[in-house]
Amino acid sequence: MPAEILPLIYALVLGYLSGSIPFGLILTRAAGMGDIRSIGSGNIGATNVLRTGNRPIAAATLVLDALKAVAPILIARYFWGEDAARFAALGAFLGHCFPAWIGFKGGKGVAVMIGSLLALSWPAGLIFCAVWLLIAFTRKISSIAALTAAATAPIFAYVFNGERLALVVTGLALLLFFQHRENIARLLKGTEPTIGSDKKAS
């Protein structure tokens, strides 16, 4: 195996191990709220944690899910360079969405994508957050906000950092769309619940 490939593999594995930490599940259990997978969408992400009504725990889940992408990216960049940092981002996203420890059923990836973008290109990350907030406040549907922000993210990644980052962000966006496939089906049917609704969503 070529020596230059090994750091990329290390970064990918590091990202996966960090990304697969199910903070939503850990925090809700620690708070005595039971198994987050038994309510709402069964998702371990911050949006589903918010359905418990505990906003501080939901906010902590959001921050920690973002940080579990930031940490391996910064470590990979320090030791192995920028290409490795991008592989760490991909690993973190895969780990969050498909964590081996809980049957490969994780979150949808929005918080991890935020953390990845902020660590890889903070201007693109801030724009992602701004787009998400704008759509969330105007349309009141979390999935539309996430999908819109993800769809535009590769454009800003290209503008600020060029083709390599844009390619990686495109991959993250496609994975995020895949994780939101049930939401997309509900959007097409007009049955996707709004933010704050008690209906089952993700």
UniProtKB/TrEMBL annotation:
TM helices/strands, residue ranges: 6-27, 86-104, 111-135, 155-178
Matching InterPro entries: G3P_acylTferase_PlsY (IPR003811)
Highest taxon in the source lineage: Bacteria
Pathway noted in the entry: Lipid metabolism; phospholipid metabolism
Annotated EC: 2.3.1.275
SMART domains: G3P_acyltransf
Pfam families: G3P_acyltransf (PF02660)
Coiled-coil region list: none
Enzyme class: transferase
Signal peptide: none
Biological process according to GO: phospholipid biosynthetic process
Keyword Cell wall biogenesis/degradation: no
Keyword rRNA-binding belongs to the record: no
Gene Ontology cellular component terms for the protein in this record: plasma membrane
Keywords from the named record: Acyltransferase, Cell membrane, Lipid biosynthesis, Lipid metabolism, Membrane, Phospholipid biosynthesis, Phospholipid metabolism, Transferase, Transmembrane, Transmembrane helix
Family, per entry: Belongs to the PlsY family.
HAMAP family the record matches: PlsY
UniProt-listed NCBIfam families: glycerol-3-phosphate 1-O-acyltransferase PlsY (TIGR00023)
Name of this protein: Glycerol-3-phosphate acyltransferase
